[in-house]
Amino acid sequence: MLDERFTCLICGAKIEKLGYTARDHCPNCLSSLHVDINPGDRAENCGGILEPIGIELNKKGCQIIYKCKKCGIKKKNIAAKDDNKDLIIELSARPVN
Questions:
Q1: By the 8 A CB rule, do 63 and 56 touch?
Q2: How far apart are CA 1 and CA 61, in angstroms?
Q3: Is the confidence at residue 78, as pLDDT, over 80?
Q4: Burial class (CB in 10 A: 0-12, 13-18, 19+), 20
Q5: For residue 32, what are the β-bridge partners?
Q6: 19, 52, 57, 95: which has the highest count of C-beta atoms within 10 A?
Q7: What pLDDT shows up at residue 4?
Q8: 34 burial type by CB count under 10 A (0-12 exposed, 13-18 middle, 19+ buried)
Q9: CA distance to 63, 67, 72, per residue, from 15 (Å)
Q10: Computed from CA positions of residues 3, 9, 13, 14, in that sequence, does the dihedral angle turn out positive or negative?
């Protein structure tokens, strides 16, 4: 997995490297792209937008729950230390089905 700078394709924010692991979502809007089957492998052909739909707290910490707008799959990613805390709080109030 590479820790790279990127421009978010959803909100346009310029995103810096995370520094302790590869960044897999935008810390500003929390969105991601459906490009991995396993973390960092870039083997998924879907390429849809992974929209944040909720939060789960578990032994791994705070995980963002996503739903792909293209194929409908649900995935989870661990929240990063610099993620938008206001948006995480907002998502935590939403029930996830």
A1: yes
A2: 20
A3: yes
A4: exposed
A5: 50
A6: 52
A7: 78
A8: buried
A9: 20, 22, 26
A10: positive
Tokens 């109030």, residue located: 93
> Is residue 36 a contact partner of residue 15, using CB atoms and an 8 Å limit?
no
Which tens digits make up the pLDDT trace of 23-61?
A: 889 999 999 999 988 877 888 999 999 999 999 999 988
DSSP label at residue 85 = H
pLDDT, position 86 = 96
Find, among 23, 31, 37, the residue nearest to 64 by Cα: 31
Distance CA 83, CA 27 (A): 4
The two structure tokens encoding residue 46: 């879907």
The number of angstroms, rounded, from the C-alpha of 73 to the middle of its chain's C-alpha atoms is 13
